[in-house]
Design the sequence.
């Protein structure tokens, strides 16, 4: 359903289970960055009324998710750690060349966002099915549905604002690139790494 070319190795969950505090902190910041992405799309493309409306709702939802993750951290007696660099996103963002028209820039941002949401959804599914912590299993099962909806929304907007055939080709190329990138990741207790 997600179109990912390389699934996460299920053994990644074993790494996560050894440091739940770390994955929750990383996850909290992923939610915050997702809200920031939605806000940046509003700021960058205010004339796209439908996009602005959806991104407003998304920013609100993502900050709600941030709050939910933060509550899990506090409930376990921890505090939110410092933000970590997301190597996955850093490497992913190198795929499309810089420059180009405003519309091209928008399509690229939407495709990046769609892929990040798709990978998050896949990771949430894996956690919901494989993690021994029943509370977190249920938590990630519930979040998985939201991430799938976000992925399809971003892809829909990319196809709306760009040439559908070109967007589909770029999406396929990005999926192939991401699969190669994922071969070197999945060894850390981070949401994408």
Sequence:
């Amino acid at each position: 359903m997600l179109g990912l070319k390389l699934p996460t190795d299920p053994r990644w969950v074993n790494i996560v289970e050894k440091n739940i505090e770390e994955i929750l902190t990383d996850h909290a910041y992923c939610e915050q960055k997702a809200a920031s992405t939605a806000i940046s799309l509003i700021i960058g493309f205010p004339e796209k009324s439908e996009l602005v409306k959806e991104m407003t709702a998304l920013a609100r939802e993502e900050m709600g998710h941030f709050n939910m993750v933060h509550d899990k951290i506090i409930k376990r007696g921890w505090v939110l750690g410092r933000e970590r660099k997301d190597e996955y996103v850093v490497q992913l963002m190198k795929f499309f060349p810089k420059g180009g028209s405003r519309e091209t820039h928008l399509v690229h941002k939407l495709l990046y966002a769609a892929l990040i949401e798709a990978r998050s959804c896949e990771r949430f599914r894996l956690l919901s099915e494989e993690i021994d912590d029943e509370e977190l299993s249920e938590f990630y099962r519930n979040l998985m549905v939201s991430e799938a909806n976000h992925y399809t929304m971003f892809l829909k907007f990319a196809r709306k604002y760009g040439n559908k055939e070109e967007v589909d080709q770029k999406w396929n190329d990005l999926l192939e690139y991401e699969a190669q990138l994922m071969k070197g990741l999945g060894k850390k207790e981070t949401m994408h790494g």
About this structure: The chain has a mean pLDDT of 93. DSSP finds seven helices and no strands in the chain. The CA atoms of residues 124 and 143 lie 7 Å apart. Residues 102-130 form the longest helix (29 residues).
